[in-house]
Amino acid sequence: RAIIAAAQKMAPLFRWKQLYAATSLNPTAVLERARQWSIDQRGLVLFGSLAASVLVLTSGDPHTQLLYRSKQANQSQHTITGTPNRVDQHEDNKTNDERDKRNGVYWFSNFFQTSFLHSLERFCDSKILTWNRVWCDQKDSFSSNDVTRFNKHVENQVAMQNWSDTYRITAKHVFVPESEAELCDMVRFAHEHNIKIRPVGSALSPNGLAFCQDGMLSMALLDRVLEVDKERMLVRVQAGAKVSDVVKALEPYGMTLQNYASIAEQQIGGFVAAGAHGTGASIPPVDNQVVEMKVMTPAMGLITVGSEQQQLLNAMQVGLGSLGIVVELTLRCAPAHELIEHTFVAQRKDIEANHEKWLKENRHLRYMWIPYTDAVVVVACNLVNPVLEKSMSEFVAKSKSKDSGEKKLSKARTFLKQIQPNLSDAFVNGLTFTQIRDRLLAHAPLDVNHIKRVNEIEADYWKQSEGYRRGFSDKILGFDCGGQQWVSEIAFNIKQQRGSFCLRQADIEYIKKLYDIIEHEKIPAASPIEQRWTSSSRSPMSPAYSTDPADIHSWVGIIMYLPTEEELGPGANVSAIRDRITTEFDRYRMLCERHLWKEYSAKEHWAKIALPENDEAIAAKRHHLAKSFGSDNIKQFVALRNLFDPRGILGNELVDTLVSNERQE
Description:
With about 675 residues, the chain is an alpha+beta fold. Helix content is about 45%, strand content about 20%. It is built from 27 helices and 18 strands. The chain has an 8-stranded antiparallel sheet with strand order 14-11-13-12-16-17-15-18. Strands 5, 6, 7, 8, 9 and 10 form a 6-stranded antiparallel sheet that branches. It has a 4-stranded mixed sheet with strand order 1-2-4-3, with no helix packed on it. The longest helix is centred in the C-terminal third of the chain and has 27 residues, at about 575-600. The protein is globular, with a radius of gyration of 27 Å.
């Protein structure tokens, strides 16, 4: 019953229920109905797996019955397609028993390891769950010449780096499909020949989440906005479309996306798969905007997953690029709307006194904590309303006589000229504050006293920058993240249950303890420590996952900036300086992990998680992931990987090391 119920959830793809009822699993009847209903090869093979699964659960000798039924399904496949089974092709020297066993393993595994594993586990012998590895671990050899079938759409020995230049690789090959059909052909080819094709978008992830030197597939040319449905407030896009391009396409329809992260250059596929988020205690992360996905999977082909398969859709949303290559997404939109942003500087005591009220009252709220100062920059954004319009008008009237542009940058410019006197006034005056800050930090990036002074200058800049601005949500919610950087971000549930906030203010207590660590350990912590909030995500691999939509999750990011050659000036050993900063940032992050993450059940952002360098640290990281994300959620993700990508052609070192089916604590 559990298997049939699971199969029915895939009814939009295959007529499971009708086929089962009409044939009673008789192979001849199955074949006849398949012809009548135009069920393709893949559908019939999967139905053969369903038949095998049912017999495993109902017979006294599951191994024998499994081999018998899978063999019948295999014969039916030959009759329809006239194509010999690939396992038989390569195993003429095997005995019939060995060949039957391998075939049975292959067909059975296609169906069995699904996202509904939890409802099936109690019925089945655990040994059955691992049988598929016997076949899938066999690797095919291939010639690099085989790839030439795609001509200009494959590039070899491609040098790549992420935005922060913290990760660099040379990929053996990068597939660049121009159409959905070509992408599907590439994935089938790669699966057949066991070629790595890790999907990559804009390569913005600080940890190089998409990188795989053994091979990648770029979605850059699959970037169209396919359909805008104003009546249903939906947009359907190819996964390679950038957030900024989608926003532009929605403008004529008076629509926009529900929320935004800090930048808009991500491709939509990566934007969703990595678990990106904006801020707003009542607004979920961006993965929850997705209502339907079309995904090309190596083992199961092209599938469309929507609300009819909500559990599977949830699991696929934050898929880390490892469950299939997302081809299209349909996202729920919102009416285009203007926001009024109010930026002001508060003291720590003000935050403690007003935090709960501010979190409730503001649609979007962001804190930028400035270490070694008492200043906290508060950025609150809300829909335009008469009260805010009046406050904004009054502020503008009072500020007309002030030369705020020059005043707010004066201290930063003066200090930069002191430490780099060779810079011309015209050059310095042409820099933004974040550009000036990057140069100031580059002068002595690990000197705590120097960092304190730079942070004090930043606090003064924001004090001089207090005020209001008005604009559409996509323009207001983005912000300048600064230059190249190391960043670590976590999320934790502050346990808001049905409107009642946690009296302990866990999110503010976290920052206070983080400040204690920074000051006690004399960490050269640059500004800002960024804190944002979202409601829960339904995706089990999201750091904001919760079964209670009323929960609120606090996101906290720490940062250290990496100076460039141009910022350091001639003669500087850029590589050595960046290496020292990296070492210090690793210490900073490890102190947070050791003293805070366990206490708060903090989950790391997948695009910012770091891969440990030794086996002991890897084991500890895997244990923390299983503990914080939930071992059942990790197991479900692994089961889906085994189902959709049993050969691991979409994986990379980071995902394969931290989330695999071997020894997951």
